[in-house]
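Q: Got a minute? One more chain.
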Amino acid sequence: MSLTFINAQFCDGRIGSLRVRGARIAALDVDPEPADEVVDLEGDRLLPGLINAHDHLQLNSLPEHGTPRFYQHARDWVAEVDARRRTDPLFEAGVSVARDERLFLGGLKNLLSGVTTVAHHDPLFPSLTQAGYPISVVRDYGWSHSLYIDGEHAVAESYRATPAAWPWIVHAAEGQDAQATAEFERLDALGCVGPNTVLIHGIALDQAQRARLTAAGGALVWCPSSNMRLFGKTAQVTDLVSKRRVALGTDSRLSGARDLFDELRLAATLVGLDDDTLAGLVTDVSATILRLPDRGALRPGLRADLLVLPAKTRLRDATRSNVRLVMIEGTARYGDAQYVISASASAEWTRVAVDGVPKMLDGNLSKRLACASMSEPGLEMTRLTGRAA
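A: Always. Here it is, folded:
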């Protein structure tokens, strides 16, 4: 299928067109070809699909963990969550739900907030790469949980086993005590700070360590909501942002915000980022850090991963209920009826309400959701509409 979006507002404010052929962006600022489906955006914003650089997808549907205090190190938070598995009936019930179902709900959470690609910081479970998964999941990556969970030997072995062309991802400096402060130095001594190193959180990194990370070619994934909730503070990122070495992640709802839009809003508030810089944290900069050369921008040849927001809507103001279209590799998955049906050659759609606003959701996703034992908060299904013409 080929289609052309016309009267689209791009990030630089200009109005133009974008042509999609199959799963790829075919051209910019061209007239539609005779056989194209034409989707008139009427001045709405057209952006690359968002990239969530850090999520634990299977944790998003678990009951929110109350935080009666701020922690000194992530190990204390992990210990409390582990204990809750055995003492909180609601939490135990959530954990008992099949992992694949919880992974699916984590993907759906991301889709509704304009995310087309997510970096899952856990094993690449088979269901994450199946055709029916709601979004794309980074496949080529190396990872270790952390020094305090895996130990130095396993962390070093993981880094050495990761191809240089892949990102190597690890929780580090997640806290505010001496152990958190020392983790960067231990990683460096183990030879684990290099061009493909991606540290998650980095709250305890000082200016000199951040400079060394940048000099090595490494980067940081910033999860401000989780950091503020668990520790009462977050990483210092202004210098890393200026060098395009920061991506944004949600961690999971267990500790973080509801979705990536909420994370963007907090990031903008904490650091005072303009919309272009903020967009980079979840598009092209994130794609560079995660070694994803085929997405994160609107250029011919890249994947047709697209997000449409209402005209002039800043990312810091966006919510999932005003998402007008999410397209992944040329296939519409969620949005307003006005756009999703026009952008779909042949698809089943389900009428839904997201936070009270009428939307359309891919019918295959809604069928799977209807069979699930858990639900996505704020999402209500109404009825199947049939196939788009």
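A: The CA atoms of residues 56 and 252 lie 6 Å apart.
Q: Perfect, thanks.
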